[in-house]
Amino acid sequence: MSLDDPVIAVDKPETATEAVLEPKTQPAPAAAGWPPRFCCFVTGTDTEIGKTLVSSAMLHALVQAGVRACGMKPVAAGTELRDGEWRNDDCDQLAAAGNVHLPQSITTPFLLKEPAAPHIAAALEGITISPVPILAAYVEINAASDAVVVEGVGGFRVPLNDDFDTADLAEQLALPVVLVVGLRLGCISHALLTVEAIEARGLTLAGWVANETQADMAFADENIAALSQRIDAPLLGRVPRLAEPTAQEAATHIDFTQLPNWPAENKL
Ligand SMILES: Nc1ncnc2c1ncn2[C@@H]1O[C@H](COP(=O)(O)OP(=O)(O)OP(=O)(O)O)[C@@H](O)[C@H]1O
Ligand SMILES: [Mg+2]
């Protein structure tokens, strides 16, 4: 599959399918009376702290609100061969939570086999990750969707090549950022450093989510209070350690309506 492939499938609303198949130039929302689009970049305090879970919850909530929602994981490292295709769990979870189904080559322009730091995994395959295919794919996803959730890789400053990292990617995409804080010892400093890095790039921190990746973290309330005092963005929710960490279940613990341009239910 290439970026030019016109293979686009939308679960619902079914009536939107035709429009999706013919990507259109979007009119200026205010001028045309269109609702503003919801798009964001989901980053985290570390790897394995719940970015995919929160991104999937966001996609689930967007679908519930009646919009065409698509997840994007521009760079994914770690694949397994399933039914003759190289698959990545994050990509599959995002695709399952959204309702606009594009080829994986568009939602993940850089799918790397080795579960390692992306620039290392890319080097193993003789690939250099570059922003251009990612930005082109993002444009294509935008044309097919009303809302896009982009999941970063690992933490906020993960190198993608020698002079380009995930923070640069968020900057080039010019997206508001949602920060997932994995509640564990050390998360306060990780979170505040990430907030500093987001703000240093002139990006908007639209909100943050406290995610209990481990059960019974000591002083979880106090950690959240310390972060709330210091982060100048809304706490969207606190996701407890879930027995079944599904998008649907996680979404019940997060109030996404506090995010800018969050769609009013069934308005699109
Ligand atoms: N609140 C939670 N309750 C139970 N399990 C959780 C919770 N949050 C995350 N997990 C589990 O922890 C693991 C890591 O979560 P997730 O994949 O969302 O992290 P990530 O930040 O996206 O990781 P990566 O950096 O690899 O993309 C997953 O198995 C997920 O199901
Ligand atoms: Mg993930």
From TrEMBL:
Q: Which residues bind Mg(2+)?
A: T52, D90, E151
Spell out the family assignment given in the record's similarity comment: Belongs to the dethiobiotin synthetase family.
Q: In which pathway does it act?
A: Cofactor biosynthesis; biotin biosynthesis; biotin from 7,8-diaminononanoate: step 1/2
Please identify the protein, giving its name as recorded.
ATP-dependent dethiobiotin synthetase BioD
Example GO molecular function term? dethiobiotin synthase activity
Q: Which InterPro entries match?
A: DTB_synth_BioD, P-loop_NTPase
Annotated signal sequence is none
